Amino acid sequence: MKKLLAMVLLFTLFIEAEPLKQEIGTILNLSGKQRMLTQKMSKEALLVGKGIDIENNQKALKKTIALFDKTLKGLLNGDKELNLVKTKDKKIIKELQSVSALWKEFKIFIDRIADGKFKRTALKAIEMGNIPLLQSMNHIVKMYEEKYKEQLSDKTATTINLAGKERMLIQKMTKELLLIAHNLESNSYMNSLKRGGRFFKDTLCELINDKEATKSPKVEKELQEVKKLWDKYQESIVNTELSEKGIHKFNEKEKVFVEKMTSKLIIVATKIDKRRYKDELKKSANEFEKILNGLIYGDSKLGISKTNNKAIQEKLSKVQHMWQEYKKIINNVDTSTKALKKAMQINMPLVENMDEIVKLYELDNK
After folding, report:
1. How far apart are CA 351 and CA 347, in angstroms?
2. DSSP character for 220?
3. 323, containing H or E segment
4. CA 356 – CA 156 distance, rounded (Å)
5. Count of other CB atoms within 10 angstroms of residue 204
6. 86, 122, 175, 176 from 340: Cα distances, Å
7. pLDDT in tens, 21-50
C-alpha cells in the first residue's frame, strides 16, 4: 500500500512538474511558429485564388492546415512527435481553447480552398478571420514568454519569440501583397451596406469622419458625391405621397437609390482598404527589418543581445542578403505577376532560414 501511494505521489509530481529548459524552448518555438502558419495558410489560399501554381499551393495549404491543427492540439494536450509537453497553466489553456474556437470557424473556409472548392466568399472569410487568429496566437506566445523568461538564460525567451516572429512577418507581408492584388471588397463596410439604406447613413458618416480615410482629396471628393446622393434620397423620402401609389413609387425609387449609393460607397471603401493594406505592409516591413537588425547587432529596446554563435551569425547574414531582394517588391507594393512569382521564390527560403535560426537559438539555450 505504501509503495502504491509513493508511486502515485511520484506520478503526480511528474505530471505537475514544470517543463525542462529544452522543452520550454520547443514550446516558445512552436507556439511562435503558429503565428507564421496563420499567415502562410492565408497566403497559400490567396495564391490559389489568384490562379498561381494552384496544384502545388493546394498541396502546401493542406500540409499547413494539418500542421497548425496538430501543433494547436499538441500545445493543449502534449505531442511526443513534436516534443511538446501538455500545458498546465489554466490561463494559457483558456486562451488556447479560445484559439481552438476561432480555428474551428476559420478551418471551414480554408479547407474549402484546399479541397478545390474555391469561392470568393471563402477568400473574404479568410481575409476577415486571419488577423484575429494571428493576434490570439501572438497573445499566447507572450504569455509563454512571460511565464518562462526567468527559467531561461538572460533574454533567451524574448530572442526566441522575436526570431520566431520574423517567420510570421515574412508570410504576412506576402499575404498583404496578395490582398492588394486581389482587390477584395471592403471587409469593414460590406456587410452593413448589403443590409440596405437604413445602415447607409452610419457607414457614410463613419467614413466621412475617418481622418485616415479622408487624407486623400480624391477619396474625400468621392465621399461628398455619395453624400449628395444620400441628400437626394432624404429629399425623396420627405416628398413621398402617403398613399398606396405614392409609397409603391417610393419603394421602387428607394431600391435604385440604395443600389446606386451602395455600389459607389463600396468602391470608395475598397480604395480605403487597399491603402490600409499598403500601410499595414509598410509597418510589417519596418518591424521585420528592426527585429532582423536587433538580432544581428543587438537592440536594448527590443530586449535582445548580439549573439556570439557563428552559425547563427552566418544564417542572419544570409537572411539579411535575401531580405534586400524581397524588400524591393514590398516597398514598391509590386503586385504584377512577375513580382508575385519572385516574392514566392524568396518567401519560403526566407522563412526556412529564419526557422533554422530559431532552432539554433533553441539549441543554444540547452
Report:
1. 6
2. H
3. helix 310-331
4. 16
5. 20
6. 40, 21, 10, 11
7. 778 888 888 988 989 999 999 999 988 888
Cell of 352: 526556412
Dist CA 42 CA 280 (whole Å)? 16
From first CA to last CA, the distance across the chain in angstroms is 39
C-alpha cell at 314: 552566418
**For residue 23, what is its C-alpha cell?**
522543452
268/222 Cα distance (integer angstroms): 7
Pick the closest to residue 144 from 39, 17, 24 (CA basis): 24
* Joined grid coordinates for residue 49: 485564388
Give the pLDDT score at 169: 84
Ramachandran quadrant class, 306 (left: phi over 0; alpha: psi -120 to 50; beta: rest): beta
DSSP state of 213: G
CB 168 within 8 A of CB 291: no
CA gyration radius for the chain?
Answer: 25
pTM, 2 dp: 0.67
CB 72 within 8 A of CB 104: no
Helix (H) or strand (E) holding 7: helix 2-16
How many CB atoms are closer than 10 A to CB 112? 18
Amino acid residing at 245:
K
Q: What type of residue is 92? A: I
